[in-house]
């Protein structure tokens, strides 16, 4: 279905209250930008995570689920869209992953530090939030302004945690020193685990991981000027990705950011950030899993670099505030496949694929006649290109030679010009309720592997459906037009906020069986399946998510979130692949004391529905629903020392999340190849915190 919106007109309200994220210090409310923008926020808490990349904590945000191919490969799925469609930044840095299957997804770059939180723009994302935010925007960061406002002196904390089963260990150390107009911070993390187990002591294949990282930050303030700098290095050693054809051998990742802020007055300021990142990544199919014969061993060496800057200027205008800004970014990827047992074998998979992004935006927000408005527009151009490719197989395989010649002779210099629009309104309906509605048009340019995969391989950006894919240089950009409305009701200590959304995506990029004879010949020879080719189709996403918060007693609180998303292709009668089913999460928190020391207790119920609306084209199987119970406690023995405990999946329930990957490790005795990877069974965690 192709539709064109001739105007972006809404009758709406924006909700100023965000969902509450709980931590031992109490509730936090984070509002980013316009009061019209409802934002969910969750502290990244090192004492309560169960996933190495903290994806379990992000699932506390409304509408979020994690699509996982391994212990450190979490992909954020928001309202059914995931991968490059969801904009993710870490401290305002846009991470360019080296792995074409998202082994080094943005979440794998999260290193905890004091004050770090994940902030999600709920629903309609303002254009000022970032470039290509078709599927939402998640910002993981620690606020510079909070560090500038600290009292002088040294603050430090240490967290050590043990996990069982799997002999997991996790250590974090953080420190911040503030002196007059300067702050310095440092953070270090170490994470390792032998393996995770499903219920009944069933080992989850290739679930081991090992990571180390460090981060430094500095800031200087002089009058109206603030200067900041950040640098992070994170090394992931051998870690499993059982849903993919290869595992992680290593990922060496580093990023930096330089920031400047000029505060001209209370309502006028200018911000400039320059950033970059570099990733080196090696993956293989023989170090952590068996290979049938030496000739089938494969290693993929990939690297990526990115540089860019973003800037914005905010000032009052017409009873409101206008924001003007620009974004510029450059990304480059390389990938070469080899066989360590055969020096002559090579595939130049991606050769200097480049993507340059140039973007300008303007956004106004204000109040007229008691109605609050926000309107924004962003113009973006993305330029993409790639160098010639090749393989030693060209001399012995006519299909490979034909594919290489065709790719190298094609026009690979591509231009995508995109216009993003977003508008929201809000108004009160009675004394205790607000009504919200918004509309937007957002775009996404095809990424490098969708354009430039020249040889049919299992490269899907983490979709991991088991098929080989080939690129398509004729792809158009995706255009999503979304409408959303909802309400927020508040009474005494209770708040409930339902949101309904409908999104029509024109030129949605997904796979269709290839008609390329050479690609079919090669794929059939290697895997016995017809390859897919990335193709523009159409899709529809629709659903609802609801948040609820209330105080049952002075020291007993209740938080609930519910979500349901339905995703369907519009060109054929088929579901979209790997869409999370309906989900209801309920958290009870009780604040009390034990031996005169504060004690915080939490019980979390997680109910997940079955998913039978699956993609027949991609041979997706249905999954059953399940229910889980998690218990945790934090005992603040002294002002500087605390003990935290957690039992996850208390009943040791065997289950497989629909968003989990398919096992591709062939020697596993308990979980067959092609079977859904199960979730973790009952796990114990003990954590000690020291802060001074």
Largest sheet: 22 strands, antiparallel, barrel
Helix content: under 10%
Structural class, please?
Answer: mainly beta
How many angstroms does the end-to-end distance come to?
Answer: 59 Å
Would you tell me the overall average pLDDT? 91
Number of helices: 5
Cα-based radius of gyration, to the nearest Å = 25 Å
Q: Assign an overall shape.
A: globular
**Low-pLDDT runs:** 1-35
Tally of DSSP β-strands: 36
- Residue share in β-strands: over 45%
In short:
The protein is mainly β and 692 residues long.
Model description:
5% of the residues lie in helices and 54% in strands. 48% of the residues are buried. It contains 5 helices and 36 strands.
Protein traits:
692 residues, mainly beta, 22-stranded antiparallel barrel, four-stranded mixed β-sheet, 5 helices, disordered N terminus
Itemize the secondary structure elements and their pairings.
Blueprint: E1 21-23, E2 26-28, E3 39-43, H1 55-58, E4 64-67, E5 75-78, E6 81-82, E7 87-90, E8 117-121, E9 137-141, H2 144-148, E10 153-164, E11 168-179, E12 182-193, E13 197-198, E14 202-203, E15 209-222, E16 225-236, E17 247-263, E18 269-284, E19 299-316, E20 320-339, E21 342-368, E22 371-385, E23 390-391, H3 398-409, E24 414-428, E25 433-444, H4 448-452, E26 469-470, E27 478-491, E28 494-513, H5 517-527, E29 532-553, E30 556-569, E31 574-575, E32 583-594, E33 597-608, E34 626-638, E35 641-648, E36 683-691
Parallel strand pairs: 7-9, 26-29
Antiparallel strand pairs: 1-2, 3-8, 4-5, 5-6, 8-9, 10-11, 10-36, 11-12, 12-15, 13-14, 15-16, 16-17, 17-18, 18-19, 19-20, 20-21, 21-22, 21-23, 22-24, 24-25, 25-27, 27-28, 28-29, 29-30, 30-31, 30-32, 32-33, 33-34, 34-35, 35-36
Helix pairs in contact: 3-5
């Amino acid at each position: 279905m192709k539709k064109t919106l001739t105007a972006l007109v809404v009758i709406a309200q924006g909700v100023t209250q965000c969902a509450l994220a709980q931590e031992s210090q109490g509730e936090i409310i984070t509002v980013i930008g316009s009061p019209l923008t409802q934002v969910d926020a969750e502290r990244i808490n090192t004492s309560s995570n169960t996933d190495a990349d903290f994806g379990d904590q992000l699932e506390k945000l409304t509408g979020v689920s994690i699509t996982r191919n391994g212990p450190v490969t979490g992909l954020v799925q928001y309202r059914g869209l995931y991968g490059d469609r969801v904009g993710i930044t870490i401290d305002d840095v846009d991470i360019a992953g080296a792995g074409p299957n998202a082994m080094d997804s943005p979440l794998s770059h999260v290193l905890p530090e004091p004050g770090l939180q994940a902030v999600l723009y709920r629903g309609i994302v303002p254009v000022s939030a970032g470039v290509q935010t078709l599927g939402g925007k998640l910002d993981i960061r620690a606020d510079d302004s909070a560090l500038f406002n600290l009292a002088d002196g040294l603050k430090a904390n240490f967290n050590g945690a043990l996990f069982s089963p799997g002999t997991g260990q996790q250590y974090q150390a953080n420190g911040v020193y503030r002196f007059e107009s300067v702050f310095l911070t440092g953070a270090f993390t170490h994470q390792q685990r032998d393996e995770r187990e499903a219920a009944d002591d069933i080992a989850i294949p290739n679930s081991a991981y090992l990571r180390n990282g460090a981060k430094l930050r500095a800031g200087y303030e002089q009058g109206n000027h603030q200067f900041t700098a950040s640098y992070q290095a994170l090394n992931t050693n051998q870690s499993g990705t059982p849903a993919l054809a290869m595992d992680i051998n290593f990922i060496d990742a580093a990023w930096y950011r330089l920031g400047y802020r000029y505060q001209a007055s209370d309502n006028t300021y200018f911000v400039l950030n320059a950033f970059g990142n570099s990733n080196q990544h090696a993956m293989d199919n023989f170090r952590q899993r068996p290979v049938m014969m030496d000739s089938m061993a494969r290693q993929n060496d990939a690297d990526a670099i990115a540089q860019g800057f973003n800037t914005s200027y905010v000032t009052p205008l017409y009873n409101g505030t206008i924001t003007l800004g620009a974004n510029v970014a450059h990304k480059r990827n390389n990938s070469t496949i080899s066989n360590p047992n055969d020096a002559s074998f090579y595939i130049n998979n991606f050769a200097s694929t480049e993507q340059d992004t140039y973007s300008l935006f303007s956004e106004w927000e204000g109040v007229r006649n008691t109605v609050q408005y926000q309107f924004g527009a962003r113009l973006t151009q993305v330029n993409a290109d790639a160098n010639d490719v090749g393989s030693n197989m060209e001399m012995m395989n006519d299909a490979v030679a034909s594919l290489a010649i065709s790719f190298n002779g094609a026009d690979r210099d591509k231009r995508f010009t995109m216009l993003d629009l977003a508008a929201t309104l809000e108004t009160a309906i009675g004394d205790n309720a607000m009504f919200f509605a918004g509309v937007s048009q957002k775009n996404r340019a095809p990424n490098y592997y969708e354009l430039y995969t020249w040889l049919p391989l299992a490269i899907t950006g983490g979709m991991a459906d088991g098929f080989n894919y080939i690129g398509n240089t004729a792809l158009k950009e995706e255009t999503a037009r979304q409408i959303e409305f909802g309400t927020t009701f508040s009474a005494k200590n209770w708040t409930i906020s339902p949101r309904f959304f409908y999104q029509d995506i024109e030129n949605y990029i997904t796979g269709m069986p290839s008609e390329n004879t050479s690609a079919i010949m090669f794929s059939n020879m290697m895997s016995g399946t017809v390859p897919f080719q990335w193709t523009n189709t159409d899709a529809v996403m629709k659903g609802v998510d609801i948040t609820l918060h209330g105080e049952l007693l002075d020291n007993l609180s209740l938080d609930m979130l519910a979500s349901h998303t339905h995703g369907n292709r519009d060109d054929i009668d088929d579901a979209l692949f790997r869409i999370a089913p309906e989900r209801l999460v309920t958290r009870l928190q009780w604040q009390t004391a034990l031996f005169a020391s504060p004690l915080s207790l939490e019980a979390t119920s997680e109910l997940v529905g079955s998913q039978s609306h699956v993609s027949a084209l991609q041979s997706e199987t249905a999954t059953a629903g399940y229910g889980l119970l998690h218990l945790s406690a934090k005992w603040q023995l002294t002002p500087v020392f605390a003990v935290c405990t957690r039992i996850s999946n208390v009943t040791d329930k065997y289950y497989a999340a629909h968003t989990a990957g398919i096992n591709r490790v062939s020697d596993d005795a308990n979980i067959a190849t092609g079977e859904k990877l199960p979730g973790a069974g009952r796990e114990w965690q003990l954590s000690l915190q020291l802060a001074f």
